[in-house]
Amino acid sequence: MSAVTGRQRALLLLFAAACSGAGAAAVAADAKNSQETLGDLVRKAPVSVQKGTSAAADSAKAMENYKRFLDLQRTDPKLRAEAMRRLGDLNQESDQLDTLDKNLSQVDVNSAEAIRLYTLLLKAYPDYERNDQVLYQMARAYEATNKPDQALATLDQLIARYPRTRMLDEVQFRRGELLFSAKDYRQAATAYAVVIKEGTSSSFYTQSLYKNGWSLFKQSLNEDSLPSFAGVLDQQLLGGVQGGPMRDLDKLSRANRELVDDTLRVMSITFSYLDGAPSVDAFLAGRGHPAYAYLLYSRLGDLYVDKQRYQDAAGAYRAFVNRDSDNVHAPDLAMQAIQAYTKGGFTDLVIDGKREYAQHYDFNAPFWKGRSHSDYPLVAKELQTNLKDLATFYHAAAQKSKLPADYQQAAHWYRSYLTSFPDAPDSAGTNYLLADALFESHQYGEAATEYEHTAYGYPRDAKSAAAAYAGLVAYQKGEEGLSADAKSTWHSRAIDANIKFAQSFPEHPESSGVLTRAAEEIFAAHDLPRSIQVAQLLLARKPPPDVAQQRIAWNIIGQSQYDLGVYDQAEAAFIQARDRSVGNDPANVKLRGELTEHIAESVYRQGEARRKAGDDSGAVADFLRVAKVAPDSKIVGTAQYDAAAGLINLKQWDQAIAVLEPYRKQYPNGPNAEDVTRKLAVAYSEAN
């Protein structure tokens, strides 16, 4: 290698100084490969960098140095070509700075100078190894000066002369952009396709997919555009891994999020131009089931909603649910379908949607396998809302239609709600509504059970007593039309319910009446000990029941005790009952007479019991007492006769005479008249 002359050394130092201001590293690297002494000289001439110097000032200084170098260097073609290229690039870089400063007139000047330099370079040095870069920069300069046709022609020239340039992907992308701006969508798509073929190694891959899709879409090749748009989603949402997990949309950069949103928007438009949701199904059939599939259906539905095509919107949302109901995003789309129907005013379809939601996301459904309710609170909340809405809807419909099927639906959804959300604050009220639905559909047995559950199975509230009383009404209605055996069992349940109600809700205005009826029905069923027990419960109430109810209770006790043979307690109870039969109205007068007879009979039975037990003296006392407690009783004569007989047996002649004389006068033609005369004769004879 020849020695470097003094003039060459000066030129090289000037070249190095120019490079140091802008792109020294790149130029030095190129120079190292072509002329070793240049690298040596550059290393021996360190450049002092002044901190705080602006980039624009450095570029201007570098350009001035390159111009001086070109004026001085006339012999070395490689150095001249490199200097001219760098000078053109610096003009381009100055363009960018000036554009930021909005000094547009200076931009045109710099770009025009860059174009002149590149043109001279290409003409003077056609074999320069970096002419592909020169053409690319020249195209950029044309584009900066708003000459897209020249820019495109320059890029076409670059491709023709350097088909294997390392910049092929970027060049084709720039061609695509220019063609797209010129609305030559067919050629633009071809250019983008070249970049796409390069694959993910190209930094322009994703953008080319996106613009290729748009180029095809603009040609009305709607279906052909979908793979390119889907490729964008694959890159942005799946990281380019088919079948991979989906990235969180909220964690994408703003630019990438906007790219994804716009891609989904144009894909939705494309699907709407085709067959809607079935087109999404068909497209995905060839791509497996990517994690972002739900977005395609969701955004299509959103598009239809914006166009007020509510049924189509709901169809799009539901299509995904039907495709993959267990997907974590499916419940949200199911709710979007319901909302679309609601906006459209399609009440029946809203109910259909709610019913499907309840079927898909009931807590026993496959969706919940391996999932916790607490991890998906929104799904659980919507399930709760939909179950209640379904029950309420069908209940209201049944009250109008009176159809058993509607009542059955209402009861079904009420039960589903209560099973799924037993601890919900409104569970008691919901259970009450379930009982009402059963009652209204004449299912009295089930209604009674649910009324009782409402009253006693939940914490006490204002409706508990009303529910318990409604249960009694259900028992009463349900007894009608039952066979004898069934009625007996049913009646027993009803009585138990009445007693439980009266004891649980003593403050209820019907409580005393209910307990009174229960005591009467128990007595009628001849369950005497229990009838006494219930009547005593009635009498022990605080505040006490009214007089009529007290009279009934005492009467039940008296009759039960009489039938049980406990005549002394029967007597006491009948007296209490008679004491509460006040008033001179015929009913009370009659009742007092009947009770007086009961008292007399009770006393007489006590005498009979004592006589049977061998207590003749006690028996006589009871027989005589009948006339005292019930002087007008029908049994007084019999009691008197039996008392006299007892006195004769006791040989108490005077007392016997005192009883028999009035008896003979009072009953001269009675059945015992002759016997009384004989007994009286005996008594007189024995008494002398």
What is the overall shape? rod-shaped
What's the count of strands?
A: 0
Q: Which residues form runs of ≥5 with pLDDT under 50?
A: 1-14, 20-55, 97-102
How much of the sequence is in beta strands?
under 5%
Question: What kind of sheet is the major sheet?
Answer: none
How many alpha or pi helices?
33
Structural class by sheet pairing and helices:
mainly alpha
The level of helicity is over 70%
Distance between the termini: 187 Å
Q: What Rg do the Cα atoms give?
A: 55 Å
What does the average pLDDT come to? 86
Topology:
Elements: H1 6-21, H2 24-34, H3 36-44, H4 55-72, H5 77-100, H6 104-124, H7 131-144, H8 148-161, H9 168-181, H10 185-198, H11 205-218, H12 222-238, H13 254-273, H14 277-285, H15 293-306, H16 310-323, H17 330-344, H18 347-361, H19 377-401, H20 404-420, H21 427-440, H22 444-456, H23 464-478, H24 484-504, H25 511-524, H26 528-539, H27 547-564, H28 567-579, H29 586-612, H30 616-629, H31 636-649, H32 653-666, H33 673-686
Helix pairs in contact: 1-2, 1-4, 2-3, 4-5, 5-6, 5-7, 6-7, 7-8, 8-9, 9-10, 9-11, 10-11, 11-12, 12-13, 13-15, 15-16, 15-17, 16-17, 17-18, 18-19, 19-20, 20-21, 21-22, 22-23, 23-24, 24-25, 25-26, 25-27, 26-27, 27-28, 28-29, 29-30, 30-31, 31-32, 32-33
